[in-house]
Amino acid sequence: MNLVFCASEVFPFAKTGGLADVTGALPLALERSGQEVAIVMPFYQCVQEGKFDLGRTAEGINYAVIGKNIKVYFAANDAYFKREWLYGTTHGDFGDNLDRFAYFCQKALEIIKAAGFRPDIIHCHDWQTGLIPAYLKIRSATDPFYKHTRSLITIHNLGYQGLFEKGQFWMTGLKPEYFNQEGFEFYNKINLLKGGIAFSDIINTVSPTYSREIQTKELGFGLEGVLRKRQRDVFGILNGLDYSIWDPAKDGLISARYSLADLNGKAKDKKALQEICRFPVNENIPVLGVVSRLAEQKGLELLTASLERICKNNLQLVILGTGDLKYHKLLQRIAAKFPKNFALFLKFDETLAHQVYAGCDIFLMPSQYEPCGLGQMIGLKYGSLPLVFKTGGLADTVDSNNGFVFKKYSSQELLETIGQALKLFAQKDKWRFLQKNAMRADFSWETSAKRYIELYEKAKKS
Ligand code: ADP
After folding, report:
1. Which CATH number describes the domain made up of 2-240+446-460?
2. pTM exceeding 0.90
3. Dihedral (Cα; 412, 417, 422, 423), 10-degree rounding
4. How far apart are the CA of 375 and the centre of ligand 1, in A?
5. Does domain 264-441 correspond to CATH entry 3.40.50.300?
6. To test ligand 1's pocket by mutation, which of 156, 207, 245, 292 has the most ligand atoms within 8 angstroms of CB?
7. b or e along 386-419 (b: 16 or more beta carbons within 10 Å of the residue's beta carbon)?
8. Which of 136, 139, 426, 433 has its CA 20 to 30 A from that of 441?
């Protein structure tokens, strides 16, 4: 099949979150399984800075190549994309985001056609590409090039929908009748994700559980009705984990390497982490680790409310994260009270992240909702048993055979579950058994790619 990915960020060219990891890794796995893939993304400043080897097509379109032969085409418009940031600054979103991404969506279809890469499927990602399915439907009626092209949109996080004032609808270039309840209208505003859902042939999210949760009032962010209407076309496919980066047997960023067959190195990594955190070095004290955006979605309300009580246990806790200033302050205040067993690192630090994953015993991830989540998958691979709330991708990857799950979102449940984990930690044989189960889990992209191919086939038949 000919597959085109359209996305607002793709690793390694531009990244603000997990979306870039998916759009950077899934095409490679699809290519390995024999598919032809191309990608279109905006020509941001960070792509233009000379870090990447760029070519130019006869039509003057810049491109890079990843994998064996995946062309990544860059939609250029310096006024829109040559900025320091992708979507906005710390003061808020850019005021012209509708204009910027409507331009991108139009341009993407032109670039694909100019490249002569006739797609079976255009795979869209999140609200930034939400206009493409509608543009495609209109085009395929008159343009033979797109006559047989179908679309799939992946929702990476329903919390972000691309909302704009209705007075700006003209910027989309769509006729006013597209601004209605069946299309882009959402409580008198433009909702790009909603339009993407309405006009895509297939819709999916990044875990099976989340695909069901988004059809409920609790986690549907107001789009549950729209999704339920399309429920026969809504699927969930778990993201993969890039084991070339996340594998304790090959990880160059940690003190000692280890594997399922030989776990000895993990004790050295724990000691190294205790030293980094200036904790007493003691293998019998359980170390809990958090590596996370500090945001409400990631469970920071619950965590900060429970933290003092957590720290009163015989354990050591390390938190690495950045995010909302509110949580920075709250965590700093608590860290000052527990200098001996709570270490706080308010930064983004790839190396330290690897050291936390390898050195901790329990990886704490109490997300309030979680479309898929990478942290818990990394924790599993590193034999650091995840302790999670039963939601979304966490529910699909962690259970009592490889970690700890709490089912009611309350401080009490969180504390009780930590208590159970601490008890089990003292029983070395049982702990080792769970660790081995955890390390056996396989979330490779190959598995996810297979599922995506099934969805593409389904879309082709629609
Ligand atoms: P999300 O994409 O919603 O933030 P995920 O769990 O899917 O959450 O992925 C988060 C990724 O970002 C993980 O690889 C995690 O290790 C990494 N990460 C988060 N915060 C930090 C940080 N402060 N320093 C280094 N890596 C981080």
Report:
1. 3.40.50.2000
2. yes
3. 100
4. 7
5. no
6. 292
7. bbbbebbbbbbbbeeebbbbbeebebebbbebbe
8. 426
